[in-house]
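Feature request disguised as a bug report, sorry. It would help if multi-protein outputs had a clear separator. Right now it looks like this:
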Amino acid sequence: MMVFLLCVPCLSGCGSITDFSDNQREPDREELPEDTAESEAAKDVDAEALSEEAVPEKGSAGQEYLDIEENKVEEGSGNLSKEELEKKREEIGLSQAGIIGLQESQSGNYYFEQLGSDEKILYVECYQILVMLAGDTLLSTTDAALLPRVYQCVINDHPELFYLNGYTYTQYTRLEEVQYITFSGRYIYDEREVARRQDAIDAAVEEKIGNLTSSSDYETVRQIYEDLILSTDYSMESPDNQNICSVFLDKKSVCNGYAKALQYMLNYMGIPCIIVNGSAGGGAHAWNIAQIDGAYYHIDATWGDPSYYSSAQEEKDGAPDIDYGYLCVTTAEISKNHAIDTSFAVPECFALDANYFVREGLYVQGYEEEKIREIFEAAKERGERVVALKASGSQAYQEVYENLINKQKIFDYFGTYQDDGEYKIAYSGNEDMYTLSFWE
């Protein structure tokens, strides 16, 4: 997004699982005209003195590396017989009765339900092996081609599996025919470290939950979205940036960490939330879909965090701390700059009821002068120096933009004197989401 300042000098008034890369698409922006319409006489504005000054363009997030999980295949020559492997399998809960129980416990998980019957058995086998941090464990299938899809479903359903970096499977063959396969996670940490980190995650989540003041699912989603953004910086420096440790412990993450942390917390609060895999801005990306009051909404906390696309200095210059443009949007809206991976079906999102701008009374059908005035006056009464609006569509957005920006009517509602005597307002716009943000 591009950010501009409106200035009025001397006014007297007025096989492989990858990381997800985030490269923000920069919406097109028109330059403010040098000459503008005359402002109200009461403001004593010299129209020809109006100028626009472009704040340095928000820097790109940088190329997020692709952390490819090393899903290795090996030819087996182990010391354990198949009978011994079957015994080991039962010891970690993969008896016939255990598998039935595991399937019942996984019933309802979004990605689990998209699998066929054989895939569901493989899913619970892989899940149990990973939960138990088990080594090479016998699987019921000899078809290794099923593993990538099933593994993806497991990690999509279970953000709590933060200690993984892919998996290894070993094929045991006789006369070039696979006899059986064993499976193991590629574990980043040992059991003691996993337990220590889980305790720390639990404490962090309990603290965040304790700070919630929500009385509805929408408010819970909004407050968690806000908290994750305000407490996390977009950064590739965290070694755990593909998992929830990066958000809850390191407070630095990338899109996969944001999405898994949001899923983890909303599910903890009983609000259904899934990971969505896809691409955005030319690179792989991950975000969420949550269910609120029976309807589905896309949520992208990564693109809602200005630290993703802002330099540190720009963040100090008064820009909004949170971009609400990606909080509870429709499939039609998110698809303008995100592409959903079609490997799995995801819910269609049509509803607007829980969209941030609709819910907060910041949604306009066009240049509704009185409503816009009320929005800005209410913000001033609350002592807020940032106001954001969302238009109902492209035509409505252009109408608001034309009046508030090109015709400079924003000065009728908002602005502040600077030390140099100028009356300034900064703004940013996102034509894809039909949003405009202003700050003094």
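(second protein starts here, but nothing in the output says so)
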Amino acid sequence: MKKIFNILLAVMLVVVSVFTLVGCDGFTSDQVNDTKGLLVKKNNSGDYVISKYTEDKDNPLTNNTLDIGAILTEKNIPKENETDAEVIIKAGAFDGNSDIKTLIVSSKVTKIEKGAFKNMNSLEKLEVPFVGKTVNADAYFGQTASATDKSVDAERTLAHFFGETEYDGGKSVVIAGVSVYVPVYFTEITVNATKGHDVIFNEGVKNIYSIPSEAFSGAVNLKKVTLTGEKLVEIGENAFNGCTGLKEIEIPDTVKTIYSNAFKGCTSLEKVTVNGTDVVLKDSVFAGCNAMDKLNSDTAKVIDLSCFSAIGENALDFGREYVEFKVQTTFAQEDLNDMFGETKWSKN
């Protein structure tokens, strides 16, 4: 009997030791890093999870700006030999934070869980990488068919970042068909496409980077959008549809395709600059942008189409009555009629 008791006692000690070393949340207790208020844990899968941010009174934020990438780089997270390690921002990690006005999420972050930035009632500016190691981002509906891909697309929208929970200081906005609460001061976003991923389509493998379909659709609070990064080649269907606060946008020279309705209904959009060459505009890209005044020009009511290789139907039907645009182009007249729809134009 005593022998059995000793065996049971030994087993219990082993179990206690294991639970002491590994918490019930799946993290090893000796792998917790408190990095300048950013709580980062390494889980049993070898991934790093940003679970919480707490203001560091001894090291206050400069200009109320938190640069997650700078902190991870300083702390060597992930380490150079951890090439497969993910960096994940956990749901609710910044819930209720009122200190951060600018949040910079670097390409070190590979996943942002739903509602990670909810209730950030002072947030004004957000920079995101839209990265993923093994996933696609559909630029148009039906580009890829699997349910997995569709869920990934949803993870790259403002609706996913901010979540659907109501809070004081949040504004109810319908983004991509989802009612979401966005900080009332949030007006500026930067998409930094600094690295891409292999996307497999029927024709083979190609390394692309796209702003997914409906990523910012309906974000009426957005006034400034900055697109940057050498990997960004596509702007998805309906990506900024209905962003009525957006006044100006510059499209980087890496972008080669802007899909249908991408800026449709952006009623405050006045100036668009497209820096690339041989760019394809699909149907109704700028339809209903009834404040549009300049496209690739600094002169009012002048449109320069020299950077485009193809333009879809009604892509330039701005809906501005009694305004005639001067057009610099080599496109044929019948093609221009299709592009401009009801909008008046004449060759410059």
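Even a blank line would do. Unrelated, but nice: The radius of gyration is 24 Å.
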